[in-house]
Design brief:
single chain, mainly alpha, Serine Threonine Protein Phosphatase 5, Tetratricopeptide repeat, Rossmann fold, 3-stranded antiparallel β-sheet, Sig_transdc_resp-reg_C-effctor, AfsR-DnrI-RedD_regulator, transcription, transcription regulation
């Protein structure tokens, strides 16, 4: 017998004799297969894991050698050429075929499962725990592929120990229970179940005071380590002990949920209640290091353990595409299911009927899908769990043609027969389909039986665009909550199953709504999704979100040889040799098998393996060749039309007569290529059929077909706007361009009604591609629409490019320029332009527009001369003629005029500027003018619905004689102007923002007021400059008018104000509130902004590794969004280097860093070069640095410059830097006012500068220690 041990030293024994397993990689092959728990591990995954993604040229040959050697070691008596029995080949890779008792980790899991149902589980648990002789997979602990399995086994071990304590309590052995529970809390202080059991054991021993002390210790540990209060189980137990109503120790607690919430594991406790079974997955891992390496159902496949208290998301493993293809194409012997899955859900059909039938009301036997009894049983088991009252999610994955849709259809049929409500939606492959179409399709089926109350679901249940759109984030949040609340209510009297097929084609709106299942209230509701595992990149985030629900994951592999034979028999049968050839060549793919058999039936017997077509598309082409050419032409037209099309549309669009079209459709149905989903409609039996038909068409022919289909659909079904938009866009002719634009805009309106802003962006982009160049007004209007959709979708980089494109097209037409500059109506967390740049042409144009009198004669404002205007920080002004007014005193001394941006008092923010522009209203309404400049936008051509120009809208009238529209336009121009100059130090930017606020307040337009206030808030970067008042106004405005983006901005600005005031508690509290808002309302830019803030706070608290991980996640998301500011990652890297004392290491990467973000990096690199003792290079880099803008990164860049200057003993430069930093001596740590990075306290730098200058320094150092203590940053003491 072969025995493998991985719970400690990795060893193997054959017949009781230890055998050497060879070198590290050969041993790793066997360990990988053990971690897979019997599942097939694909060859490419093995190669990738063994060589960490960098395999040598002959990696496959080496792998084969390792496998051959291991087979000889494990089966020394195997006859030559006899197939291996233990380490077997199973396409597309290898698997271990061993009983549970042969592998200590497998045996351990089996013993824990058995203990759960034992009357006295202590013997079984003692035996299980005795198998551990060290960490699991110890020699591979650093390998990424091992981490999920190591974490799973560690969780299971902890649960087993908790079960052991609970069993001792039930048996009355309190002495043993007290001792073991104490060890539990010592080993894993962040698992609440250990504390609960320890308190129970002490109370049962008559030591009530000690039990309460233990609970107080638990509360302290959780608060100190995680900042959390104890969960309900500990809270209730404490109350019970105090009142003398201690529960029976055998009563299940709620610790599983408490531990899960606090350790990042979906199931990590609940030992008394049998929580161990929830930790141990009974389904196999698909692939080590892949999506499901940990647990197929537990959702706890994270790289951290429960002991660490790490709340790492399971998305790193479970959120990926599951790599269901790891078993696809496999023609396994026996059951068509993977062996471990069969073991988990296996047994005879009658056994499975008994297991699932009681809960669901229907058995498995007699399944209508060949070879899928095991998988169907698993799904029926999930349905039974859902029927018990808990929302359950199941995910079916596999390659194209593997039988996902058939399995979902059979499950739906069974559940409907058992009295369930069922609804099915399918994600269409067509890019022009309505957003969230799968949900719309399914929900309309539910609504036909259970109409929803009110009109909250109208965006999904109706295809008519709504003229009124509230705040996008609010409305989307409400819509999603309404959907899940309604589904829960609909399942109240009869359980409900919702099936979503082809999720690999899902659009963002579909996935966003599916994400809501993670937090939806429990109800008798089953949600089943199916997708192609090898095309599921877009599902990564959704799978991560759903992991908290521990979904059932079913990877479908190829059918077994017996199942293939059964399938072939259903198509007319074949001899054994043909069946064997089909099974081998098709990999057991049911669709491929059926099509091959149908081809065989039409062409004659296939007598040799070589005669079986190589691919399913070749099979389909040969089958199509058997049909008459006119019929094929109609089928190709149907393929271009879409997945599901009306027959009368095909008749109208075809070149043939009605009878010929109907004959062609009949031929397709009889051949099994088409289906009839409803009377008068046809669809394709499989997406592969449609794909094959369209792939062989030239682009020219496809375009002409789209034109004919669009014309036919316009006559027959004019309300199908998304399909009309798709056809006319794809037609690509001058004759269809006008309709392509018109329908694309209408489809975009529908998309925005469903809060599918990404879809709206695609549609409007297509409309622009179709638009002629004749009318610049229509072009600009359409670009403005696109810009608004892009900002709502969070793609600010694209929005900026669209704005610039609109400005260029506007030329010298002021009405179009105003439309372009005022189209940006959404508050954004980051600057609208790349950091450190100013578009001088846009600034000049906006100044001219603001200075232009209105048509009624109201004078404009000249923002060109701001010499005497107040600075954004409240200090004296600077000339705007020098690169948009960047101050010199904040950067290199003497590089620009004036250094009055810093006072000598250390606490005062300076005095306000005098004079200034005479119409710049100050906060509170002082100094404002009654005039409003600018002109209204163009009225547009009206050619496409809603594509007219951006005329001023809303607002109050009568401001100083100007119309309300004029005032709105002027306010928007002012905010646009201020946004262009934000952070540059140009005093006119703040003047413009303040005037915009005054106008917006008078108009009473909450959206305009929010936009102007957010612009003004961005200008305030100094302590005691009024940011807290503006932030509070924004937060209140967001609450009052239900504007989550505005509420978020206000809350985040309150965090920034607290940081500027040196209030760490307020900063942390407000940042956490902002993070919650961003996540709740799914605001992408806000999420990344709060992510950087949380990372900066981690740096301040000395949690450098946590900060590095968080920064990396945020940077990845920003790159995915195409953010203008993704380069901030290098700033974060530099801040961490300072905190860790490794700044000198950046010197080696100076060329790479400078190439990435240019001169902005000069001060950072100068500090790094100085720290690396490369003074000449450091001085050269200092000279290359541009002036430091007085914005939210002022103290960050100035501190870096100071670090270099101090090291280089540059006294002249030190004087200017000392004066520049002095006003920030008692605020946040350097850079933290940006809420994105953090360096040491400013007074620390001031002290070192003072020492260099021969000035008193001790007061600064005392203040630096006080700041460090206030921010709980001992590394800065």
């Amino acid at each position: 017998m072969v025995v493998l041990t991985v719970l400690g030293t990795f060893e193997a024994a054959v017949g009781g004799t230890p055998v050497p397993l060879g070198g590290p990689r050969q041993r790793a092959v066997l360990a990988l297969l053990v971690a897979a728990r019997g599942a097939v591990v694909p060859v490419d995954r093995l190669v990738d894991d063994l060589w960490r993604g960098e395999p040598p040229a002959k990696a496959l040959a080496s792998l084969q050698a390792y496998v051959s050697n291991l087979r000889r070691l494990l089966e020394p008596d195997r006859p030559p050429r006899a197939p291996a029995r233990l380490l077997v080949s199973a396409p597309p890779g290898y698997a271990l075929r061993l009983p549970d008792d042969a592998v200590d980790a497998w045996r351990f899991a089996a013993l824990v499962r058995a203990a759960r149902d034992a009357e006295d589980p202590r013997r079984l648990l003692d035996e299980a725990l005795s198998l551990w002789h060290g960490p699991a997979f110890a020699e591979a602990a650093d390998e990424p592929w091992a981490a999920p399995e190591v974490a799973r086994l560690a969780d299971l071990r902890s649960a087993a120990r908790e079960l052991r304590v609970a069993a001792a309590l039930r048996a009355g052995d309190t002495t043993d229970a007290v001792a073991e529970a104490a060890r539990l809390t010592e080993d894993e202080p962040l698992r609440e179940e250990g504390w609960r059991l320890r308190a129970l054991a002490l109370d049962a021993s008559g030591r009530r005071a000690d039990a309460l002390a233990v609970l107080r210790s638990a509360r302290r540990v959780l608060a100190d380590e995680l900042g959390l209060d104890p969960g309900p189980a500990l809270t209730h137990l404490e109350q019970a002990i105090l009142t003398g109503t201690t529960p029976d120790p055998a009563t299940p607690g709620n610790a599983a949920q408490g531990n899960a919430a606090r350790s990042g594991n979906a199931h990590c406790g609940g030992a008394v209640g049998g929580g161990a079974d929830s930790v141990e997955s009974t389904a196999p891992a698909t692939t080590p290091g892949g999506a499901q390496s940990g647990s197929a159902q537990s959702g706890s496949a994270q790289s951290g353990s429960a002991q660490s208290g790490s709340a790492q998301s399971g998305s790193a493993q479970s959120g990926s595409a599951q790599s269901g293809s790891a078993q696809s194409g496999s023609a396994q012997s026996g059951s068509g299911a993977p062996p471990a899955l069969a073991a988990a859900y296996g047994g005879s059909a009658s056994d499975r009927d008994g297991a699932y039938g009681g809960a669901v009301g229907v058995g498995v036997a007699g399944s209508g899908v060949v070879g899928r009894d095991v998988e169907l049983g698993a799904l029926l088991g999930a349905a039974g769990d859902a029927r018990g009252g808990g929302l359950r999610i199941a995910l079916v994955m596999g390659e194209a043609g593997i039988g996902k849709s058939a399995l979902l259809g059979e499950l739906a049929r069974r559940l409907a027969a058992a009295g369930w409500r069922t609804a099915t939606g399918r994600c269409p492959e067509d890019a022009g389909a309505p957003p969230a179409w799968a949900w719309a399709e399914a929900l309309r089926q539910v609504a036909a039986d259970v109409p929803p109350p009110g009109d909250a679901l109208d965006p999904l249940l109706s295809d008519t665009p709504r003229p009124d759109r509230s705040d996008a984030a609010t409305a989307r949040f409400r819509l999603h909550r309404a959907v899940w609340a309604w589904l829960g209510a609909a399942a109240g009297d009869r359980p409900l199953a919702v099936f979503l097929d082809d999720l690999h084609w899902a659009d963002p709106a579909t996935l966003a709504l599916l994400d809501g299942a993670a937090t939806a209230p429990d109800a008798p509701l089953l949600v089943v999704g199916a997708f192609r595992a090898d095309e599921s990149e877009r599902l990564t985030g959704t799978l991560a979100a759903l992991a908290r629900r521990s979904p059932l994951r079913l990877p479908l592999s190829g059918l077994s040889a017996d199942a293939v034979a059964e399938l072939v028999a259903g198509e007319g049968g074949a001899d054994d040799a043909t069946v064997a050839a089909l099974a081998e060549r098709t990999g057991g793919n049911p669709f491929y098998v059926r099509e091959s058999v149908r081809l065989r039936n039409s062409e004659g017997a296939l007598v040799a393996l070589s005669e079986v077509p190589e691919g399913v598309r070749d099979v389909l082409r040969r089958r199509l060749a058997r049909l008459p050419e006119p019929a094929v032409a109609v089928l190709r037209l149907a393929a271009v039309a879409g997945d599901d099309v009306r027959a009368d549309v095909l008749i109208e669009a075809a070149d043939a007569g009605e009878d010929a079209v109907l004959d062609a459709l009949d031929a397709g149905i009889l051949a099994g290529l088409l289906t009839e989903p409803a009377p008068g409609r046809v669809g394709f039996a499989h997406a592969l059929v449609r794909d094959t038909m369209t792939a062989d068409l030239s682009a020219l022919r496809r375009g002409r077909m789209h034109a004919r289909l669009g014309a036919a659909l316009e006559r027959i079904e004019p309300g199908d706007v998304p399909a009309l938009a798709r056809h006319f866009r794809a037609a690509g002719t001058a004759a269809t361009a006008d309709r392509a634009v018109r329908y694309a805009v209408r489809a975009a309106e529908l998309a925005e009604d469903r809060y599918a802003h990404e879809t709206a962006v695609d549609l409007l982009t297509g409309a622009l591609d179709s638009l002629s160049d004749d009318d610049p007004a229509e072009h600009v209007a359409l670009l403005c629409r696109l810009l608004r959709a892009q900002t709502r979708a969070g793609d600010l980089t694209a929005a900026r490019a669209t704005r610039d494109r609109a400005v260029a097209l506007a030329g010298d037409r002021d009405d179009l320029l105003i439309a372009a500059f005022t189209a940006w109506t959404e508050p954004t967390p980051w600057q609208r332009r790349p950091y450190g740049t100013v578009d001088e042409q846009s600034v000049a144009t906006l100044r001219r527009l603001l200075a232009t009198p209105t048509p009624n004669g109201t004078p404009g404002t000249n923002f060109g001369d701001t010499t005497s205007a107040g600075r954004p920080d409240g200090t004296g002004g600077t000339s705007s003629a020098d690169t948009a007014g960047r101050p010199g005193g904040a950067g290199r001394p003497g590089s620009a005029d004036g250094t009055d941006n810093a006072d000598d008092t250390g606490g005062s923010g300076g005095t306000g500027g005098t004079g200034g522009t005479d119409n710049a209203g100050r906060p509170g309404g002082a100094g404002g003018t009654n005039s409003a400049g600018g002109t209204s936008g163009t009225s547009g051509t009206g050619r496409a619905s809603g594509t007219g120009g951006a005329s001023g809208t809303g607002g109050a009238s009568g401001t100083g004689g100007a119309s309300g529209a004029d005032v709105v336009t002027r306010a928007r121009l002012l905010t646009a102007y201020a946004a262009e100059l934000a952070g540059t130090g140009d005093a006119s930017a703040r003047a413009a923002a303040e005037e915009a606020v005054v106008l917006a307040r008078r108009l009473g337009d909450p959206a305009l007021r929010a936009l102007s206030l957010t612009t003004l808030a961005s200008e305030i970067v100094r302590p005691r400059s009024g940011l807290d008042a503006i932030a509070s106004e924004l937060a209140d405005l967001g609450v009052e008018h239900d504007l989550p983006a505005v509420r978020w901005f206000g809350t985040f600005s309150l965090a920034r104000a607290a940081a500027l005031a040196g209030d760490p508690d307020g900063t942390s509290r407000r940042t956490a509130e902002a993070a919650d808002l961003a996540a709740r309302y799914a605001m992408p830019e806000a999420t990344t902004a709060t992510g950087t803030a949380l990372a900066a706070l981690d740096v301040a608290a000395g949690r450098f590794d946590a900060a590095e991980r968080r920064y990396a996640r945020v940077a990845d998301e920003m790159r995915r969004q195409g953010s203008l500011h993704a380069g901030f990652e290098l700033l974060a890297r530099a801040s961490l280097a300072v905190a860790r004392g490794t700044l000198h290491e950046l010197a080696d990467d100076k060329d790479e860093i400078f190439a990435a973000i240019g001169p902005l990096s000069a001060n950072m690199l100068a500090a790094a070069l100085a720290a690396a003792d490369r003074p000449a290079e450091a001085r050269t880099m200092l000279a290359a640095a541009p002036p430091i803008a007085p914005d939210y990164l002022f103290t960050f860049f100035t501190t870096f410059r100071a670090l270099a200057v101090i090291t280089l003993n540059d006294r002249d430069e030190a004087k200017a830097l000392y004066k520049a930093l002095l006003p920030f001596h008692d605020s946040a740590p350097a850079g933290l006012e940006s809420m994105s990075v953090a360096l040491r306290p400013v007074p620390q730098t001031l002290g070192e500068l003072a020492r260099l200058l021969g000035r008193p320094d001790e007061a600064h150092f005392r203040e630096a220690r006080a700041v460090a203590e206030r921010w709980n940053a001992p590394h800065w003491h």
